[in-house]
Amino acid sequence: MKHLIVYAHPHTDSLNHAILNTALETLEAQGHEVVVRDLYALGFQPVLSAADTASMRAGQTPQDIATEQQFVAEAEAITFIYPIWWAGLPAIMKGYIDRVFAYGFAYASGEAGIEKLLTGKKGLIINTHGTPSEIYDQIGMTASIKMTSDIGIFDFVGIEVIDHLLFGSIGYLETKAYQSMLEQVKETVSTKF
Fold it and tell me: What is the pLDDT of residue 121?
């Protein structure tokens, strides 16, 4: 299976980076073809500009967007790995969605309403956050995050969400807890794809 991992975290010594490595190693060990797009390492420009939209309307997608769209188009499965900051996506990941999942590429409007142009792809989202998971569950934040990303992004363009892992209390746990999280990533990736 052709698998795209879109990764957003500025630190290579982070848990998110360990999650990335675990997912990548697990997928490759199972024979998947994997492409990783590390948005910080790429220096991805996240701001959707007026020039971007004008170019796309004219049928001339800017090269950096076209490159990322090609990776998305070729992928059978897409995994997003990023931390939750201020109850949402890091700016660089939000900008990736804004620029790459563009009208005419990821979705369009038709007689029946919204056309989901990425239908047929599978999606996995893996997030970390500092707040304990129990608190996020109690205040409705877990459900809100899933609604925004699973339904508002992936489902909106036709990507079938096969799982969404959220790991809380990051920065406040013992080593064993982080190892357990990585084992859950490994198990999820190996059983869902």
Answer: 98
